[in-house]
Design a protein that fits this description.
The chain is mostly helical. The chain folds into two domains: 104 residues, Rossmann fold; 63 residues, no CATH class. Helix content is 59%, strand content 9%. It contains eight helices and five strands, in the order αβααβαβαβαβαα. The strands form two sheets. A three-stranded parallel β-sheet has the order 3-4-5. A two-stranded parallel sheet has the order 1-2. The radius of gyration is 25 Å and the shape is elongated. It holds the Pfam family Hydrolase. This is Plasma membrane proton P-type ATPase (Eurofung). It is a multi-pass membrane protein.
Length: 188
C-alpha cells in the first residue's frame, strides 16, 4: 500500500485491511541510503509506505516490475498518472481526474475499495472457468482421437462423417455446464 497519509494512519489502515504492519516512511526509499538491491528487497518485503510522493509511487512500481512482479496501481489525481501508466494494470477510481483516467487501464464508476475487490473476485472466477473449459476441451479432443483411431484399427475401415459430427455436437452440450458452474474466486 502506498499512501500520502502519515505513518501512524498508514499502519492502522494496513492493520484494518489485514495487509500486515510492515509499513515504512517514504524516506527509506529515496533518502534511506539503500543501494538498488537493498531498496528492492525493502520494497518486496514491505506491506506499505507512508507519506509518499508521486516519484515514490513510480519508483516502487518500477522496482517491483524489475523483480518480475505484476503491479496494479490505483489513483485519482494528476500526480498519479505516471504511476498508473507504468503499472501493469492502472486503475482510476470514481471521481478521478481526466489525466488519471486517460493513463489508467481500468476506470471504476462506483466509489470505494469494494469495487476493486469485487472485480478481482469476478476476474478470478472467469479465469477459473476458462481454465476448466480448456482442460475439458483438451480431454475431449484426446478422447475423440483415441476413440476414432481405436475404432478404425478394430473395424478396419473409416468412421462415417455423420458419427464424428454427432460425437462433437453431443460433447459440446456438456460444455454449457462449465459456464454455470460454481467457480470460486480463490485459487485452489
Amino acid at each position: 500500500m502506498l499512501t500520502g497519509d502519515a505513518l501512524a494512519i498508514a499502519k492502522e489502515t494496513c492493520k484494518m485491511l489485514a495487509l500486515g504492519t510492515k509499513v515504512y516512511n517514504s524516506d527509506k526509499l529515496i533518502h534511506g541510503g539503500l543501494s538498488g538491491a537493498m531498496a528492492g528487497d525493502l520494497v518486496e518485503k514491505a506491506d506499505g509506505f507512508a507519506e509518499v510522493f508521486p516519484e515514490h509511487k513510480y519508483q516502487v512500481v518500477q522496482m517491483l516490475q524489475e523483480r518480475g512482479h505484476l503491479t496494479a496501481m490505483t489513483g485519482d489525481g494528476v500526480n498519479d498518472a505516471p504511476s498508473l501508466k507504468k503499472a501493469d494494470c492502472g486503475i482510476a477510481v470514481e471521481g478521478a481526474s481526466e489525466a488519471a483516467q486517460s493513463a489508467a487501464d481500468i476506470v471504476f464508476l462506483e466509489p470505494g475499495l469494494s469495487t476493486i475487490i469485487d472485480s478481482i473476485k469476478m476476474a478470478r472466477q472467469i479465469f477459473q472457468r476458462m481454465k476448466a473449459y480448456i482442460q475439458y476441451r483438451i480431454a475431449l479432443c484426446l478422447h475423440l482421437e483415441i476413440y476414432l483411431v481405436t475404432s478404425m484399427i478394430i473395424i478396419n475401415e473409416s468412421i462415417r462423417v455423420e458419427l464424428v459430427v454427432f460425437l462433437a455436437l453431443f460433447a459440446d452440450l456438456a460444455t454449457v455446464a462449465v459456464a454455470y458452474d460454481n467457480a470460486s474466486s480463490v485459487d485452489g
